[in-house]
Structures are given as structure tokens and as C-alpha cells.
Amino acid sequence: MGIAGSKTLSTTLHNCTLWKADRSPACRSVMMALDAMNLSLTEVDVDIDKDEHNLPEIVAMNPFRTLPILKDRELILRDSHAISTYLASRYDESDKILPQDPAGRSLVDQLLHYDSGILQPRYYVSVYPILYENCRYVMPQPIEDIEKSYQDLETMLTGHLWLSGSWLTLGDITVAATISTSNVLVPVDKQRFPLLSNWLYRMSEQAFFVTANKKGLSEFTNRIDTGKISGLNEFKKCPRSSLTRRSTGGTLSET
Ligand SMILES: N[C@@H](CCC(=O)N[C@@H](CS)C(=O)NCC(=O)O)C(=O)O
């Protein structure tokens, strides 16, 4: 399963483990990148709602207490953007989703910095009061800020199918994880942001979006709509492979 759903064989990264939570957009961006590159590794679910990201073994790897975390032999990375670019530059041979030429690469980096510096902080300001402070609504200022991002992205998409230009890259994948999640809180208005809305639809049709984003997104939506944690019995802190996740269409099942 590649970007266009091709049936090339998956490469298993035997030394790599990813600690992640499906409802987290940062984690889903890495999972989508893995699926787009046909890479598999061991995935371990960490339940943020049960505070598992504060367990000593997780904090030892990431004192910032955030997910995702990647371990490749002795290397530990604790930022989704660094993780995805590391995996792509080390293990992806296609040179497609992370171009090797400096100009193409800089366009992707630009989007990743935009996600990390602008989109993610605006998303967290909007969602944390709902997730952790019993707030039921997104406040007016965060709505305004998120809509400013939608306007930025609408401008970036003028004359382009993809945020990175003529083909889909890690930049699109990363932004799609954040925006598809922000969209649950502050819906992308089709009339005001037609290019962004169409781009999000195109992204949602990609095979990797179905296998790696859809389930976590509906878990997140359910959490926001009801305040409840869906499918509690599905949260298991046991390893499974990326391949298993993909073969079940993004749903969790035992290996
Ligand atoms: N810039 C970091 C952000 C990571 C981050 O903040 N992750 C969130 C989940 S999306 C988290 O772990 N939050 C902890 C919490 O909700 O308590 C990245 O992209 O990896």
C-alpha cells in the first residue's frame, strides 16, 4: 500500500518501535507517513487518557511527556516531524514524499515548520480546554486563529493540487493530520475555503489516510462529541506491527 494504493511489498524495520496514541494528530502523521512509504515497525499504544504517557519508562525516553516517540536502536526521537523525516531519509528509497534535492526538500521542511510552529499550537490551544478542563466549546479567539490558518492554506493551494506543489509529500501528510483533526473542532467551510476543502477530500481518499488516520480521527471525534473514551477495551499497551494495523483497515486487532 503506497500513496496510490500500489501493492508493493512492505519493508519491516526490525529495530524500530513507535509509541503512539491514535487520537493524537502528531502520531497519526507518522503512521500515515509509514503507510505511504510502505514501511512497517512495531507500534505500541500509549493511552493518554489513562496517563500512560507519564509512566516512568515513557518519561525516560521523552521527558516532554508527549507522543509520538520513535526508537531506532539507540536513537530516540520525540517529535513527529523529526521522526517522519528521519524515517523517510533513512529508509524510503522512492525520493517522492521527501525529495532529496535541496529545493524540493526545503519546500517540505517549510510546511513541517509551519505545522509545528503555527498549526499545532493553534490546535492545542483550541482542544486542551475541551480534553482536560471540561470545557464544551472552542473559544472565539482559537476559532479565529484556526480560521486564519485555513486562509493561509487556501492561499498556499492557489494554483496547486498539493501544498507542496505538483505532488503529494510529507508536508501534505503532516498538515493533513493536524487539519483533519482541527476540522472536527472548527469545520473547514467549503464556501470560504474551497481549495482547502477539496485538498482535504483528496487527502481523505489516499490509502494511507484510510489505514492510518481514519480510525484515530473518529476516536477523537467521539471523545470531543461525548467526552467519552471510545472502545476502551481496544486500548492495549501491547506491541503490534504497522502491517497488522494496515491489514485491518486501520482498526486495532491483536497480532
Ligand atoms: N510537536 C510535537 C507535539 C507532540 C504532542 O504535543 N503530542 C500530544 C498529542 S497530539 C501529546 O502527547 N499530548 C500529551 C497530552 O495530551 O497530555 C510533535 O509533533 O510530535
UniProtKB/TrEMBL annotation:
SUPFAM superfamilies the UniProt entry points to: GST C-terminal domain-like, Thioredoxin-like
GO biological process, one term: glutathione metabolic process
Signal peptide stretch: none
All copies of domain GST N-terminal, residue ranges: 14-95
GO molecular function annotations of the record: glutathione transferase activity
UniProt superkingdom: Eukaryota
Sequence ranges assigned to domain GST C-terminal in this UniProt record: 101-228
Stored InterPro entries: Glutathione-S-Trfase_C-like (IPR010987), Glutathione-S-Trfase_C_sf (IPR036282), Glutathione_S-Trfase (IPR040079), Glutathione_S-Trfase_N (IPR004045), GST_C (IPR004046), Thioredoxin-like_sf (IPR036249)
PROSITE patterns: GST_CTER, GST_NTER
Family matches, as CDD domains: GST_C_Delta_Epsilon
Identification of the protein by name: Glutathione S-transferase 1-like
